[in-house]
Specification:
The complex is a heterodimer of chains A (118) and B (105).
Chain A lengths: L2 E5 L3 E2 L5 E8 L9 E7 L6 E6 L5 E3 L7 E6 L4 E6 L8 E9 L2 E5 L3 E5 L2
Parallel strand pairs in A: 2-11
Antiparallel strand pairs in A: 1-3, 3-8, 4-5, 4-9, 5-6, 7-8, 9-10, 9-11
Chain B lengths: L3 E4 L2 E3 L6 E7 L7 E6 L6 E5 L3 E2 L7 E6 L2 E6 L9 E6 L5 E2 L3 E4 L1
Parallel strand pairs in B: 2-11
Antiparallel strand pairs in B: 1-3, 3-8, 4-5, 4-9, 5-6, 7-8, 9-10, 9-11
The chains are: A mainly beta (118), B mainly beta (105).
Chain lengths: 118, 105
């Protein structure tokens, strides 16, 4: 059974860097069949795709966040990570990691609320 | 960026009734459209992919249709557990989500 779990600080100060890790069990993120992505959801609002990684670490980012986003992968730990720089209160959201492919985003982590506040 | 517009924003209904949710894309997405259900405090759950294919384990009362720019999700007979927020999402050009439709009692 594929499972994803987000981890990282729940509170980040304005102008600092948000860093999250997604740990994957039940499948290899280096299998090359799927994308591994991040999606966020501000409180009470809709879903926003942040970025995704494919095999060998190739990445695609939402154009509106591209200048502040970096994704990376650690295949030895079967994890992938998100960094979002220069955060503001507008970056406060539940952050989800998910697997996606031709059938859509089919497996999701439980999500983690990250609050940007001093 | 492809913008997905969902309507209505909120839909009031009752158990046993049929409901239809709409999703319109700002440009052609072929049939590369999916639907998700989200309940409070939970991650979204994939319902429909490629416009009309039910994901694994999704009941037959959920059906999707459409192609190009206009899509619908129909729930043929609402069950109590179906009251939730529904999102459409396209994968034709990167990935974007609609703003959601809340189905409420």
């Amino acid at each position: 059974q594929l499972q994803l779990q987000e981890s990282g600080p729940r509170l980040v100060k304005p102008s600092e860097t948000l860093a999250l890790t997604c740990s994957v069990s039940g499948a290899s993120i280096s299998s090359g069949t799927y994308y591994w992505g991040w999606i966020r959801q501000p409180p009470g609002k809709g879903l926003e795709w942040i970025g995704s990684m494919y095999e060998r670490g190739s990445t695609q980012y939402n154009a509106s966040l591209k200048s502040r986003v970096t994704m990376s992968v650690d295949t030895s730990k079967n994890q992938f990570s998100l960094k979002l720089t220069s955060v503001t209160a507008a970056d406060t959201a539940v952050y989800y990691c998910a697997r996606h492919g031709p059938r859509g985003f089919d497996y999701w982590g439980q999500g983690t609320l990250v609050t940007v506040s001093s | 960026e492809i913008v997905l517009t969902q309507s209505p924003a909120t839909l009031s209904s009752s158990p046993g009734e049929a409901v239809t949710l709409s999703c319109r894309a700002s440009q052609n997405v072929n049939n590369y459209l999916a639907w998700y259900q989200q309940k409070p405090g939970q991650a979204p759950r994939l319902l429909i992919y490629d416009a009309s294919n039910r994901a694994t384990g999704i009941p037959a009362r959920f059906s999707g249709s459409g192609s190009g720019t206009d899509f619908t999700l129909t729930i043929s007979s609402l069950e109590p557990e179906d009251f939730a927020v529904y999102y459409c999402q396209q994968r034709y050009n990167w990935w974007t989500f609609g703003q959601g439709t809340k189905v409420e009692v």
